[in-house]
What we know:
Layout (H helix, E strand, L loop, with lengths): L19 H10 L12 H31 L5 H28 L8 H7 L12 H29 L2 H22 L25
Helix pairs in contact: 2-3, 2-4, 2-5, 3-6, 5-6
Amino acid sequence: MKSRKQGNGSRQSNGDPRGVAKLAQQAADGTLLYETKNPLPAQTRADAVRLMNKRLADCIDLQSQCKQAHWNVKGPMFIALHKLFDEIYEATGEYIDLIAERIVQLGGIAEGTTRVAAQRSSLSEYPLVISSGEEHVAALSDVLAQFSGKARAAIDELEDLEDPDSMDILTEVSRGVDQWLWFVEAHQQTRPQSTEGRSAGSRFGSSSST
């Protein structure tokens, strides 16, 4: 009896018949691009895709942290914060779409799975055991501020790449995130503090000895 052939002849011995692992790495590096009539140079598009995918991972992580806060907040401010955190979650979903669709417009692959986001996000880990409104306000305002800062850094890099449209996308996103940061931070702000005598790198909200 003749032995049956294994596979259909296209499978390679490494178990990766289509070279998916290599393609995935190329996509992550921004070197795997679809052909497009977009007038930006291929290298510019590749660099922009790589940069935007990093911010996409951050934004997906940010959205999940908003929902974590929404589910778990407790205390006297529960109703107000429960609703606010969910509104931020919904808005962040729109930011994710803006970033992902720009990546695809450039001929790239939007890499937006939860697993990829978990591996790539540069945001701080959200504390899982906090419960009070004050704790969630502090934690979520921290991560909103982090994302806003990283979006601005990416805008500067995109300016060097001469990709004004991607800059506009992240400007719109950072503007929206700043507004949500205002809404969240307002729950913990009490009085303004003088900036006299503070160095440029000092934290504005920290107390100083007199």
